[in-house]
């Protein structure tokens, strides 16, 4: 069994963030993976270039992030400083590295990123996101001809409004987001009724259970992948759907780490079935006591033999 490339740099810990989006998030993941059975290799990423960032962000917006002082003045709660632009560029570079590696190596690769990216749009930031990591990576693969049609799958508890904004008019990119009910949590967007032929929004009910989540994911995600037939699948992997992770208003009864293993298996098997390259990027997930185990379970879904059937639904009789 080959190792899995995980793109990560300790330089990402320099972004102090703001509770609960702290450097400890990445620390606990890396430490758990080092002690786990996951065959992996940590790969130091290269920063995304200005040209890379301008594939998805307005140049004037990037200048505001780099200069940061006006943001400090008008948005004092944003944890942005003189280092943020460079660290966010490195975070986007980690996503690019994972995308390039999955295409070159023919197997899943993952990027440990922070700041997170899925709330950063073409010319706006939000939710402690300034540069959209996964969008930069997908756009670069398309621009370089390494992919022709891409699908982004977001299972963060929050709708990926920034990613949606960036690719809204790009016919090469399809988006499926399965997130908490839009009226209940930031950014209060992503209602199912607003879905289009290229963008599918699915709202989890409040207090969604393991079985409900896995059943819905199995029902809608493989079907849309089959409909679209992408040659590149990019996964915005958020672990703030976990029942202890209630910092940003997310409410669920997802209690089993193996639920994320099943999500990984669904994606791995479907990508293998249609011959698509697939990579993932870390988004939310703030309950550090269990975060390493949650990410590990998701990644193990890709390291197992990619042949076989979709995993069974969760047996909730074992949920306490």
Summarize the structure.
This protein is α/β, with parallel strands linked by helices and 320 residues long.
What does this structure look like?
- This protein is an alpha/beta fold and 320 residues long.
- It has a single domain (4-302), classed as Histone deacetylase domain (Arginase, Chain A).
- It has helices at residues 24-35, 50-53, 59-67, 69-74, 84-105, 133-143, 161-167, 210-228, 258-274, 288-303; strands spanning 4-7, 40-43, 109-111, 150-154, 173-180, 199-204, 208-209, 232-237, 252-253, 277-282.
- Strands 2-1-3-10-8-4-5-6 form an eight-stranded parallel beta sheet, with helices on both faces. It has a two-stranded parallel ribbon with strand order 7-9.
- Helix 1 links the parallel strand 1 (4-7) and strand 2.
- Given helix and strand content, the structural type is alpha/beta
Per DSSP E runs of 2 or more residues, the count of β-strands stands at 10
CATH class descriptor name: Alpha Beta
> Ranges with pLDDT <50 over ≥5 residues?
308-320
Number of domains: 1
What's the arrangement of secondary structure elements?
Layout: E1 4-7, H1 24-35, E2 40-43, H2 50-53, H3 59-67, H4 69-74, H5 84-105, E3 109-111, H6 133-143, E4 150-154, H7 161-167, E5 173-180, E6 199-204, E7 208-209, H8 210-228, E8 232-237, E9 252-253, H9 258-274, E10 277-282, H10 288-303
Parallel strand pairs: 1-2, 1-3, 3-10, 4-5, 4-8, 5-6, 7-9, 8-10
Helix pairs in contact: 1-10, 5-6, 8-9, 9-10
